[in-house]
Amino acid sequence: MSAWTRLVVRIALSVLLAAVLLAAWAYHAAWVRYGDALDQLQARSMRLDGLAAAGGEIDAALKTVSTDTARWLHPASANAQNEVQQRLREIIVASGATLVSAQGVLEPAAEGQQQLALIRLTATVGGSWENVVHFLEALQTQTPVFWVRNAGFLRDGASKGGKAQSVRITLQLEAPLAPEKAAP
Asked: Phi then psi for 181, rounded to 5 degrees?
């Protein structure tokens, strides 16, 4: 064998060895990526299997939470705004205070967000201090709830003399509405 033939064979064997080593490295890299991806998929699959297995427990917990929170939310209906305003009037009248003015507006739940629809109310209530305090106590213990966002007091009557003073309170309230059930 001549020197040139040996050189060509060595170069060919070196290139072949380099190609085999490169292919082995590429195969190893691909196998490692496959193993990592498989580990991720198995972990996700196990979480999904766990969720599927706990589906009954999750449904029971959601029903319990819905039942527990339902008493805190005003029922959603086509006349929800009028019903909430009427309920506020009933609380005011029952306390002995006088409703001076009330306005309400429906604020629907934002799409794609975890928020409840609300009725925003502004009410001005007047009367004796005792009656207004009774009204505020009744409002605080009321279920479904009225969230007080702002309150302003104004005293009516003379500051001197034996006459009783009265008070006028302006409230900004929110009444959360229960989510409407989707039709099956």
From this structure: -80, 135
